[in-house]
Specification:
The chain is mainly alpha-helical. The protein has helices spanning 5-12, 19-24, 26-37, 42-51, 64-69, 72-76, 117-123, 128-136, and strands at 80-85, 89-94. It has 3 domains: 5-51, no CATH class; 60-107, no CATH class; 111-144, no CATH class. It contains 8 helices and 2 strands. Strands 1-2 form a two-stranded antiparallel sheet. It is elongated, with a radius of gyration of 27 Å.
């Protein structure tokens, strides 16, 4: 990358010569960098800086979820899974990001209201009569 006029000025500005200088002049440095970064599109900065081994990424427009859920790289990397939800039908969701040999993860649809209520109540020691009473009084939602 050829030195851009503004970047050359920053590189030779005594206010930014050392770490301590940059720390003392943080506001000025931030203003200078903001002016410099505004001279090119984010995607161009990403390309130029990555080529120089500077970690950076252009910020995606819109909600992060949209960028992640529609990104072909995310799908190819195995970070997305197709699931079937009883209410919403087929949709994408994030897949487990790690693979454990003894307890492999699995992407499943989100639970529906009341879906696991009875199992949880039984695990907590509630009997049939107590569970029925909770359902009848509307304390616990019925599945479906």
């Amino acid at each position: 990358m050829r030195e851009h006029g503004a970047s050359a000025a920053i590189a030779t500005d005594a206010r930014f010569a050392t770490t301590d200088d940059r720390r003392r002049n943080d506001d000025a440095l931030a203003a200078e960098l903001a002016r410099l970064l505004a001279t090119r599109p984010a995607e161009e900065w990403e390309r130029l800086l990555l080529a120089r081994d500077v970690a950076c990424v252009a910020v995606a427009d819109g909600p992060v979820a949209r960028a992640v859920m529609n990104d072909p790289v995310t799908r190819e990397a195995g970070f997305l899974a197709e699931v079937e939800h009883p209410t919403f039908g087929a949709h994408r969701r994030l897949a487990p990001v790690v693979a454990l040999s003894a307890t492999p993860g699995e992407a499943r649809p989100a639970a529906t209201l009341g879906m696991h209520g009875e199992a949880v109540l039984r695990e907590l020691g509630y009997d049939d009569a107590a569970i029925a009473s909770l359902y009848e009084r509307g304390v616990v939602a019925r599945p479906g």
